[in-house]
Structures are given as C-alpha cells and as structure tokens.
Amino acid sequence: MKKFTTISIFALTIFCFCFLQGISSKNILFFHSVATSSHRTAIWPLASKLADLGHDVTYIFAIDPQKRVGYHPKIEEIVPSKMVSIIKEFVADFDINIRLENRVDEWLQTVFTTAITVCEAFYDSPETQEWLSRPNLHFDLVLIDAGFGECAYGLVHKFKAKHIVFTPFVCGLVYDTFGVVPESSSIPDPFFDFMPNQITLIQRTWNTIAPLMWRYNILKYIEKLEPMVRDKMNMTDMPPIAEFEKNTSLVFHNGHFIEEYPVSLPPMFVSYSGIRCEPNKIKPLPTELSDFIKDTDTFVYVSLGSSVDVGKMPISLRNKFFDAFKSFKDVKFFWRWSGPIPQDTPDNVMLAPWFPQLDILGHPKAKAFITQGGRPSIQEALCHSVPIIAIPIFAEQDHNAMKLEQIDALVRLNINNISEDDIATAINEVLHNPKYAEKIRKLSNMFKDRPIDPLENLIYWTDFVLRHDTSLLKPLAMQQTWYQRRLLDVYGFLLLIFLTLIVVAAVIMYTAIRMCYYILKICLRKHKKE
Ligand SMILES: *[C@@H]1O[C@H](CO)[C@@H](O)[C@H](O)[C@H]1NC(C)=O
Ligand SMILES: *[C@@H]1O[C@H](CO)[C@@H](O)[C@H](O)[C@H]1NC(C)=O
Ligand SMILES: *[C@@H]1O[C@H](CO)[C@@H](O)[C@H](O)[C@H]1NC(C)=O
C-alpha cells in the first residue's frame, strides 16, 4: 500500500511537472525526399518517441510499405505512390557494379535532377493531394531530411510551421547553408578518403573547393525547384527557399567524435548519434536463425547495406566471398542478400533478404560484422561492441572506414581489387587478433558514456524548438556570403594593399633611379666641360 502511494505521488509529480512545463500535444511532420532506408532507420526512434509522448506524428517516406523498417501504431504514414516509383528506379540504378566500375561520382551527379523529379512526384501523388485537402490540417513543426528535402518548404510555408533539418552526416549539403565554414585545412570532406595526417597541398585545395561546388550545385537546383514548389502548392506568396533555410530552428546531425573527426559546430547543431543504441532491448533470435548457429560459438554477420543490390555482383566476386567463408569450418555466416539465392551457397552461410540486424549484432556469438561502413551500421557495431570489417561502396563510407582504420578500430578492404585471400585474412585477423575486440570494446564503452541519453537529448531539443525561438543559437556567419564567411574579401583587400604598396614602391624607386641617372648625367657633362 505504502509502495502504491509512493508511486502515485511520483506519477502525480511527473504529471504536474510536465503540465507546468507546458508539454502539450503538437502536430509534428517528418519529411524525407531522396533517401535510402538508412535515413529513416537512423531518425525513426525520435519519431517513435515523440508519438509515445503524445504528439501527433505524420511521417512522409517514399518506400514500399512492405520494405520499410519501423512501425508505430500512432504514427500516420503518407506514402506518395509517384514518389515511390521514382525513388525505386533511382535506387535500383545503384547496384554494386557502379562501384566496381568506378562510376560513383557520375551517379552522384544525377541526384540533383532526380531530386527535382522526386519533389514534383511528391506533390503530384494522389496520396499527397488527398492528405493536403483534409480540412484543418495543421503542423507546428516539420523535420526535414537534408538529403534534398528543400521540397518540404512548400509545406512549412503552408502550415506556417517551425522546422528542423536533420542530416545523416555533416557535409557540403549543410556547411554553407547554415553558415559553417568546413575545417578543410585538416578534416577530409566526407566524400574524400585521404588521411588527415598525410594531407597534401593538392588534397587540401580539393578539400576547400568541394564544399563550394556542392553549394553551387545546390543553389542551381534550388533555382529550378523553387518555382515548381510555388506552382504545385498554388502559393505565389511563398518566399525564396534561402529565407526558409535561414529560419531553420536547429540542425540534427548523425555524428560522434568516435566515428567522425573532432569537428567544431555551432550550438544549433545537435547530434543524434547513438539514439538507436539500446543494448538492453535485444530480443532472442527467431528459431530458424538460432538453430543455424546452435553448434557454433562464433558467427559473422555480413550486410553491405539496404541500398546496395549485392545480388547483382559478378559471380566471380561472389565466389571469392563464398570460398573465403567456406574456409572457416567452425564459423557460421549470415549474409543479407538481395535477389535469388545461389545454388552453390556454402553450408555454413545463410543468405536472406532481411535479418533482425540489431538482435543479431547484440547476440553473444556475433564476433564480426562485415559492413559497407555506413554511419548507422558503424554505430550499431559500436553499440554492441562487434569488431568490424569495412568494405565501403559509396557516399561517406570510405571516409568512415578510413577514420576508424586509422585508430585500428577496423579492417578495411577495397571491393575493387578484393581477393579471396584478403577476405579470409581479414576475417581471421578480426576473429583471432585480440586487438580488434579489445579496441571496439573500449570504443563501445566510450560511445555509450554520455551525460544524457542521446534520444532524451534529442527530445529535449525538439521540445526546446517548440517552446523557444532559437535565433540566439545560430552562427552569425549565416547572414554572410560564402566569401565573407571565409574572409576571402579581407584577404583580397590585404592583397590589394600589398600590391598597391609594391606598385608605389616600384614607382618611387623607378623615379629615384631616373633622377639619379639624370643627376649623374648632368654631373658627367659638367665634368667633361671642365
Ligand atoms: C492548385 O490549383 C489547381 C487548379 O486550381 C488545383 O487543381 C490544385 O488542387 C491546387 N493545388 C493545391 C495544392 O492546392
Ligand atoms: C522567418 O522567420 C521570421 C521571424 O519569425 C518570419 O517573420 C518570416 O516570415 C520567416 N520566413 C520564412 C520564409 O518562413
Ligand atoms: C587495392 O587498391 C587500393 C587502393 O586503390 C590499394 O591501396 C591496395 O594496395 C590495392 N590492393 C591490392 C591487393 O592490390
């Protein structure tokens, strides 16, 4: 009885506290544009938690509902059908061969035009139109995926809502937009894969230019996007997208100093790395999987990511993996596969289109994780302390892998020239050289050592945006131009002064020499006459 009273008083206190704090139910919208499943997976815990706390959450994500990860009974999902088919086509274009044929950069360039088509498809989809035509549709806050989410500013304007931008990693998509000058003298751009301690002058030059090229391409793309959004929403009064960008309340980014170089970011940047790390919530594996690993004490989990069609890899490459796996008689392998299951799959390998990845990595017999090295995968490995072999495919994966390789936290392989022997050696090393398990254990402890639970922190900042204006957190440089932010005008001015001084000095010297010459001439003439 006494316990019961204590509990009720405690509950009442919490209730009053929340009430006084003014936490009331708000309408919150999440919007993804050109995004792979990993973008959704990474931010889903926030949406889910906001719904648990009583907010009305709507989630816009263009993927086949059967294929999406994460479900919450109280979250309304809008799946714009026309957008789904365009994204499906775009992602299907990306198979592993693009990396094998060194066409990643070329493919990346097409993303700007795709983003415009995707946005058009969003507003044209019948699901979107039905949703927008609902009476009393209102949102207080929109959370926008930085991956070409500018399309959502039409919604922000319609609902007169505040907005937060979230980004899978800090890169050229966000630097100048939010007044951040990247530390390009020392930190490699996420799309470059050189080591910061051996950076050359040429690499630093590329490193400096790359974010500017991103920004230039983004501005070109926004120029085309803006009139289209205005038109689709019938909003002739919609201000330029650049104004919405300046009004962004906060930027949530998925980075932590273990997976990222130690980078300085303004107070408006809040990290969400680690919000999926809940080692206590691991569920037992389904019987089919647990039976497979019954007679072994070691298994390796292989997944090259949800967006890479591994089934399309050349058979010769597939056989290198199979042969390497076959040589580990006492080890079982789970491989997240796409497409038909090959006949010659070794007995110790199970291929499936989907695995309960967190439960697998959280299993005590999981001794290695072969991954493409995307941020969420690295974070899962850190969370569950599983040694990593990284085989980067695209985006920031090479960068992530090199960062961690540098501190001996993983073994990195290059898929372009990988051999059966490389794979076997890497597995052997990670399974049997204790330095990898030891290192990941230390990093895992550090990763989870936080002053506040990362998800609680994110909820706090989301509520903060609902309660306050965040102008005071924004970098002043947000109001400046790209060259003012980099002090290029100051250096230009100094150069001008320097050049002027040189010219003035040169003129003075020239005049002086001429004068001396004349004086000398006159003297000489006089001398001759005498
Ligand atoms: C814009 O106007 C057109 C024609 O008046 C209409 O068909 C369409 O539904 C409107 N769109 C929106 C988003 O209000
Ligand atoms: C930006 O915020 C200011 C101040 O709240 C507001 O007056 C303005 O309309 C906003 N601009 C846009 C484009 O939302
Ligand atoms: C594979 O390529 C990488 C970089 O292109 C190189 O550093 C490495 O030495 C190559 N490995 C082999 C086995 O050729």
From TrEMBL:
Key words of the record: Glycosyltransferase, Membrane, Transferase, Transmembrane, Transmembrane helix
Pfam families referenced in this protein's UniProt entry, alphabetically: UDPGT (PF00201)
Transmembrane segments: 490-520
Domain of life where this protein originates: Eukaryota
Subcellular location: Membrane
This enzyme's EC code(s): 2.4.1.17
InterPro entries: UDP-glycosyltransferase, UDP_glucos_trans, UDP_glycos_trans_CS
Reaction(s) catalysed by this chain's protein: glucuronate acceptor + UDP-alpha-D-glucuronate = acceptor beta-D-glucuronoside + UDP + H(+)
Matching Gene3D superfamilies: Glycogen Phosphorylase B
Transport as UniProt keyword: no
Lipid bilayer topology: Single-pass membrane protein
Keyword Transmembrane helix: yes
Main localization (coarse): membrane
Enzyme class: transferase
Similarity comment: Belongs to the UDP-glycosyltransferase family.
Name of protein: UDP-glucuronosyltransferase
Organism listed in the record: Orchesella dallaii
Organism taxonomic ancestry: Eukaryota, Metazoa, Ecdysozoa, Arthropoda, Hexapoda
